[in-house]
Amino acid sequence: MSVRVVLAAVAAAVLCALAAGPADAKRVRVFAVGPKIDPSWLQDRATFRAKLLGLTDARERPAAAAAGVPIQDGADDVASHLLGPADPARAVATARDLVTLPEDLGLLAAFTGVRGVTARSATDITTSIVGLLATYAPQAAYYQSRFPALAGRPFPPTRLLATALTDTFAHVAVETFAELADRSDAYLVAGVNMARDWRIVCVDRATYVPPPGGEPCAQEDPAAVALLRAPEDLTRTYAYEATTPEPVNMALVFDPDGRLISRQVKAYLTPVELPGSLDLAPGPVSGLRAVATPVGRLGVATSKDAWMPDVTAKLDQDRVEVLVQPEFFVGDTVRRDGPWAPDTIRASGYSDVLRHPSIETLVLPELTGNLFDFSADNQQAIMRKPRSRTEPGGALLGQDRMPGLVAVSPWVVPDPARPGEPLVERRARLGQAGEALLPGSGVRCASRTVPAPCENGHVEGVLFADVQVGDPPRLRPVPRRPRARGRVFTADRPLARAATAQRNVALAARGRTAWAVFEEQGGGRDQIALVRSTTEGASWSARVRPTGRPAGAVREWWPAVATGPDGTVWVAWQDDSSGTWRVYVSRSDDGGRRFGPPVAVGADAPAGAAQWRPAIAATGPGRAVVAWIDERGRFATEDRAQAQLWTARLQGGAVLDARRLDDAPAPVPLAASLDHAWAPTVAAAGDRVTVAWLDFRTYDWRTVARESADGGATFGPLRPVSRTAAEVEALDDTPRAAYPAGGGPVVIAHTRWEKELRGATVASRQHDVVAAAGDRLPVQVDGRGRTPASAFAPAIAAVPGGDVLVAFQDHADGPGDVRITRLTPGRTARRPVRVDDTGRAGTNQWRPAVAVTRRRVIVAWEDERDGPSQIYLTRAAPSRVR
């Protein structure tokens, strides 16, 4: 069966699934376009353009062939599958197509034209860079005089070179991308590596004709035009001039008229992008935002960003619907030893769609092929959030079925070779084929247009699928299920049902009283509400607004709640009332009925410094400790904000001893400009306080902690909670801490992912939930062992007798379920218990919270069974959760 037939069948299945969706959602077609690197299309602007036009529109392939630019046999296209705008006269407002192209695609423009001849003929990257430095020397001198700081960058001077290439990148790549968007009447995302900002200079405004995209001439400067434009392009009367000396890796977003509407800058850089190699500038750690378009709220996580928990959590919080992951996944290729690259890819955008409620779709376009000693053989993929345990799903190379994977590109050999092919045999066969693709393999290809296991025989092509975006589903309450025989927990019930979406619930309890805080949308903004129960969760009060803000006036995110022995209730959150995200705390002295005015916990931070994701715990009567992420610091190596971990004591209405906790030890060199912190948690038992968080100082995400014995006035040294070996990449997430009742060391649960170094013979476990008591090794609590299935978002609470309960979000069957495990510190965890009562209905449940009253365990979570996400809860006697 041909690839085209397979994809058509997948598309038909997707359309059937979409037919059951909410009536107020919009059908959108998404495309992943993946060209293969080949010298034929890097000769000049015309061949670069011919390649992309030919790959996206089959009608252009004869012209591409005539120009010596081959398109791979069997490659699909975009043009023949476009839905087109609902109203062609208003394409920008009514577009129904999204076209995505890979990371680094614009970088290849450096090899084009007369000035790229030496670079194209080079046999290694060093010679190529030297050649470009020579041919772009006049442009480099021009920019060095404009931006003297470029002279102080590390050798080789690649940041200066990338700035000097601004006109080439823009004229060859950016204009081609704009033309593709305009021709397709589609929104388009494409990757470039170039100056973050530029302008057009022209010879004469009166005769200036705008290029594709319609950018105006900012200034008349004939001398600059003559210097910056390509020497073979003497009739061009304009040029692009960099206005910043900081080249970045970014995805450009174009509207259906070809206009550039957004620049999404990659925040976390790979080693090849750091000083000593490409020397790109990292983007702001909080710079990525949703791009609102008629084809959905788009979020772009370029390559490494898709693995970063802070990046994807912020995109989810900004209600991104469609996550675009542009890739040039170099270095991690399919081979017979070391990590299995598709296992690593599975842990990125695919896992993001599972774990984050708002992200419905993943589109992953991939640039394949060999460039000097760089090689990329990753598959393109499109995923929709799974809502059935039996729906068909594709698979990445060497993997079993992955629910929700609706389109995946073929590879150079069949996979599996036969039904039931054993994993070790299967991956060895695939690894041998992958090694044949690599530079210098010596395996010659019989044809340039037929993919095969030979040097640079990679696959190129186009994937597409239909997805839904737009308005959330209407509230359609589902009748409560009767409690099933033998069920540990009571029947699920909504906490405080609303017609709009709710999320991010947090719980606290003391005695028979419990408090819940959560977000719900109102007036187009997220608002924080609090409800309380004096019946151990059996009934709940009306909503109280603890923030003191006028309803709907500001956005309020990520609430946290704690209660002290005197009944004081503390609520912490972040909002943008000051024009910048800042963390605030309010206090109630009457059990949560009324709250005092909000108090800024980091009021001394400079203007514009954002603060994020607070956590709070009470330490005594009228006392608490709060921790948060604070961007007041700056890196010494790059003028960028650093996300730091800060904490403060609260005494009545006063904020005391605000300080940074993550200032030592020094980061490894790779993390010198990327050492951020994220996701704090605070636990307290009287004056014993633990603050734990995620830390990137080792150039991966590991859970660390500091402890205090005096109520947060002073803290001991930083200690690791993660025990992943130093040589293994770790991607922890969501630490949560609790002190066991009656004493004992703090227990910290977190999500763990480790790169499996034996991946060619052992499947990666994917994301596990683990818990560590004090200095002991973490214990897996999700009950999945080595099964390659993911669990996320743990919550933790102590129960009488010294045990703790860990609730988590489980995706072993595709859609998310909530489960809970009882753990005796220092021992193996018990078998997890299912919490929600949706059975095999296929709806998703996310991000549980757990609290323990005198006689009940209360678990709350986000639940989509009623349409828009609602906070649901259930209860059980602690003794029954075992």
TrEMBL record:
Gene3D superfamilies: 2.120.10.10, Carbon-nitrogen hydrolase. Residues 238-325 form the CN hydrolase domain. Keywords: Signal. It comes from the Bacteria. Residues 1-19 form the signal peptide. The keyword Iron-sulfur does not apply. This is CN hydrolase domain-containing protein. It comes from Paraconexibacter algicola.
